[in-house]
Amino acid sequence: MTSEEQPKAEHRSRPTSAEFRDFVATGWSPRASEPTPRSEVADVTAPRREAVSAEFTGERLVIPAGGLKVRSNDCDYVFRPHTAFAWLSGLGADREPDAVLVLDPLAEGGHETTLFFRPLAPRDSEEFFADSRYGEFWVGARPTIADVESELGVRARHIDELKDVLAKDAGQVQLRVVRDADAAVTALVDEVRQEAGVTESQTEADEALSRSLSTRRMVKDDWEVGELRKAVAATHHGFEGVIADLPEAVRRGRGERWVEGVFGLYARHEGNGVGYDSICASGDHANTLHWIKNTGDIRDGDLILVDAGVEVDSLFTADVTRTLPVSGRFSEPQRRVYEAVLAAQEAGLAAVKPGNRFKDVHAAAIRVIAEHLHGWGLLPDGVTVEQTLDAEHGQYHRRWMVHGTSHHLGMDVHDCQLALREDYMDAELVPGMVLTVEPGLYFKADDELVPDDLRGIGVRIEDDVLVTRDGHENLSGDMPRTVEDVERWMAHVQERGRP
Ligand SMILES: [Mn+2]
C-alpha cells in the first residue's frame, strides 16, 4: 500500500501552467476498449484460494504485495511482489507494487477475493505526466480495474477503498494479515483492530496465516511443475552461454563477473531474471559458500563453481550448481573430489522417493561424504565413519561440508521456509514436492589438515528434483554431471557456440 518515500529534490520541480495541463491531457488515441484477456494463471490460483478459504472460514485475510524500496534518492529497486501475494493473486514479475489482496468472508460461506491496487490514472490527472513512480509518461500505462478483473478473474478495486473494507465489522470478524509483506498495511490492520476494541495481540494469528501460505506451496501441481521445467530449461541455456564464453572470461580478467553477466543475460532474456544472486566462484572462491561478489579472475586449470537459476515470470525459479574445469579437463585431484561429491549426490538422489523423509536425503548424502573423508584420512585419528556421523559427539566431517543437502524449491529459492519442522525436515516426501540435492566438498586454500593437492578445490553439484509416485524425476537431469559428460558437454558447447 505504501512504497518507501522518495526524498523530493526541490531543484527539479517544474512550473506547470494551466495551458500545459490542458494541452497534455488531449490529442491522444482512445485507450483499448478490450480489457486484458484472462490469463492462464487465473485458473490455477482459484483452487489455491479455495483451499485457503476453507481453512480460514469466516475470517478476513489480508495479503499485501509490498511496496517499492528506494535504492537511492528517486531510484527504486526493481519491484518483486511478496511470494504469498503472487501465489494467491497470480501476479508475478514486477507486479503490482502497493497492491493488497483481500479474501473477504461471505455470509453464505466461502470468500470473495478483491485485489486493491492503483489503477491507471486518467490523462487529465497530474499523475499521468508528473508522477515518476506511477505515471504513464514515466513507467508506462498501468492496468485498469477492468484489466485486472479480466486478467485474474477476481474483483478489483482502487487501493483507496482498502481501509473501509478492512474496518467493516472488524470487531466481529477475525482479521489476519501477512505481517512481513508491507509494514504500512500491517500498521493499518493493527489500527483497525484497535479501533474495533481488539486488545489482545494478534501476531500469532497472523503468523499462522503466513505459515499456512508457506506450507501450502510445498506440493506443486502440474502447472507449477511446468513453470519449474521452464525455469530449468532457461537455466540450462544460461549455463551453456557461460560455458561458451568461458575462454573469453579467462582472457578478460575479472572473469567471474563476466560469467555472472552472461548468465544474467539469459535470465533476463528468457525469464524474469535470476532467482537469486548468482554464485560464480573460481578457484578458492568456491570454498566461500555464498560467494556473490564475483570479483575474481578465472584461471585455466582451476575449477569454477556456478550456482545460478533463472526465475520465470510466475516467479518459479531453478537452482542449479555445476562445477566446471575451466580448461575443459579435470585434473586428477579435482576429479577425485568431484567424484566423491557426485557419489554423495547419487546417494542423496536415490533417497528421494515417497515414504522417505526429507532429512533422509541429507543423511544418505552426508554418509558418502564422511566415508570419503575417512578414506582420505582427513578425520581425526581413530574417528570412524559412524563416530563422525553421531549427531551429539561427532560431526568432524562438517568442517568440509557445513551446509545441508536439500531445500524445497519453488517461487522462493528456499521455499516454504515458514513450515514447521514436522512439515519440513521430519515430513515424508510425497509426489509433487520439488527439492534440491546439493552436496559439496570445500577444501580451503589455507586448510592445513588437507593435503596440498586438494587445497583450494571446492565442488558442489546441485540438481532440482521432483518427487514422483515411484521415486523421483531429476528436472535438471539434462545438464551433464559425470566427469566424462561434463568434459564432453564443455567441448561440444565451445565448439558450437552460444545456445
Ligand atoms: Mn540450492
What can you see in these coordinates?
- It comes from Arsenicicoccus cauae.
- Its cofactor is Mn(2+).
- InterPro entries: Aminopep_P_N, Creatin/AminoP/Spt16_N, Creatinase/aminopeptidase-like, Pept_M24, Peptidase_M24B_aminopep-P_CS, X-Pro_dipept-like.
- GO terms for molecular function: manganese ion binding; metalloaminopeptidase activity.
- It is an enzyme of class 3 (hydrolase).
- This protein is of the alpha+beta class and 499 residues long.
- The protein folds into two domains: 200 residues, Creatine Amidinohydrolase, Chain A, domain 1 (3-Layer(aba) Sandwich); 275 residues, Creatinase/methionine aminopeptidase superfamily (Creatine Amidinohydrolase).
- The chain contains 15 helices and 17 strands.
- The strands form six sheets. It has a five-stranded mixed sheet with strand order 6-5-4-1-7, sandwiched between helices.
- Helix 10 packs antiparallel against helix 11, helix 10 crosses helix 15 and helix 12 packs antiparallel against helix 13.
- The protein is globular, with a radius of gyration of 26 Å.
- The chain starts with 17 loop residues before the first helix and ends with a helix.
- The model has no long low-confidence stretch (mean pLDDT 96).
- Manganese (II) ion (MN) binds next to loops.
